[in-house]
Amino acid sequence: MSALAYQYVVLRCVPRPDREEFVNVGVLLYCQEAEFLAVEWDVDRQRLAAFAPGLDLDRVCAALEFVSGVCAGDERGGTASTRSLTQRFGFLKAPKSTVVQPGPVHGGVAEDPAAALARLRSQLVG
Fold it and tell me: CA angle 83-85-88, nearest 5°?
């Protein structure tokens, strides 16, 4: 198998955008050639509660479940999940004014996009 180019964004919990502080909570990876779009996320509730007392942690998890649904193309992602993988990635990487926001787009190459996603989540989240 040859190396495949991919793009990824780190998903950030940004409780107060005015302070420009965030905690990484997930990684979204798209590989067009492999027709792969997936997210891995982990909400450390104790860490986020200490970071942002009063933050609605269920809302954070719901936002990440929505991202999971868009990636999977199921009902959790609403109408966004019915679009092509390229359109879904474009939708998810666009900045939004929610508590979960995407960081900048980065690129890489890997023979196995799923393994690359797991590695990135391990390195960048938590």
Answer: 60
